[in-house]
Amino acid sequence: MIVMARALESGYSRPGFRGWEGVQLRKAKKRRSEARHRPWPLSQRPGFLIRRLHQIHVALFQDACGEFEVTPLQYSLLSALAVRKTADQTTLAADIALDRTTTTGALKRLAARNLVERAVNDEDRRARLCRLTTAGAALLAKIETPARAAHRATLGNLTEREQAIFIDMMQRIVSENANRDSATALFD
Question: How many domains does the chain have?
């Protein structure tokens, strides 16, 4: 009996052993196994939370800027063009961290509304040079205040200090992973 007790204490369980110690040992092994295979809750996954935060921001942006019929992506393109004055579509795609195909589609939609001009580049006939039209610059001036309000509302539940820290952390993550752009890899 003493030998059996020592064997059980060391983790030994003979096949078919049905005593109380054997049951406890099997339960402990099952708990360890379940702990290793427990699903990771969505609410603790950074990727899931980032996607949800993006969804929340888009909804807030639409609430604030819906009357302008501009998406956050189009707002980013208009803003990038305001800074650059003139840029080719590839440069703009890099500026807003998006693939060229999606960027080109968004620029075509902005051009159809006369917000952006897309001219053939004289130096490279395959490329298009883009610039804001007068209407595009006027729209950007009108949308700037509500768009900034949407950005502030996205982080509105944080203190000013927390917002600054959060933005700093996001900038660090983005800059340290600048070469990891799945959209470009998938579509270009």
Answer: 1
* Helix spans in the chain (H): 2-9, 20-36, 46-65, 72-84, 89-95, 100-112, 134-154, 160-176, 182-187
What global pTM score does this model have?
A: 0.72
Q: Which two tokens stand for residue 2?
A: 């003493």
Three-class SS state of 15: coil
Domain around 126 = 45-174
Q: Can you spell out the DSSP letters for 56-109?
A: HHHHHHHHHHGGGT--HHHHHHHHHHHHHSEEEHHHHHHHTT--HHHHHHHHHH
Give the list of residues 6+ apart from residue 140 with CB closer than 8 angstroms, or none: 75, 78, 79, 82, 132
108: in domain: yes
Q: What is the CATH number of the domain that holds 115?
A: 1.10.10.10
Each residue's pLDDT tens digit, 77-126: 999 999 999 999 989 999 999 998 999 999 999 999 999 999 887 777 77
Instruction: Write out the two tokens for 41.
Output: 């809750």
Distance in angstroms (rounded) separating the CA atoms of residues 108 and 64: 24
Tokens linked to 103: 């960027």
